[in-house]
Design goal:
This protein is an alpha+beta fold. It has a two-stranded antiparallel ribbon. It has a two-stranded antiparallel sheet with strand order 3-4.
Length: 70
């Protein structure tokens, strides 16, 4: 499943369509997504399951800060 995310006024929001020229593209399977989002692993541990395209520095910062658990 592809979920386009756009940053608007400093906040990430799910978009309907991907931008024509995204700054970065981050791809991963759902298991990797859940592990990162739930704080069960860090990006370095799952690097083989994460693909970055475009601005890889930006993409790396995104996955390094992917934990959504409070």
């Amino acid at each position: 499943r592809e979920v386009p995310v756009v940053v608007r006024v400093g906040w990430a929001v799910a978009g309907d369509d991907p931008p024509a020229a995204p700054s970065t593209t981050v791809s991963m399977d759902s298991d990797t997504f859940v592990a990162l989002a739930m704080g069960r692993a860090v990006a370095e541990e799952l690097a083989d399951s994460i693909a970055l395209e475009g601005d890889t520095d930006l993409g790396g910062r995104v996955v390094a800060n992917f934990n959504m658990m409070i």
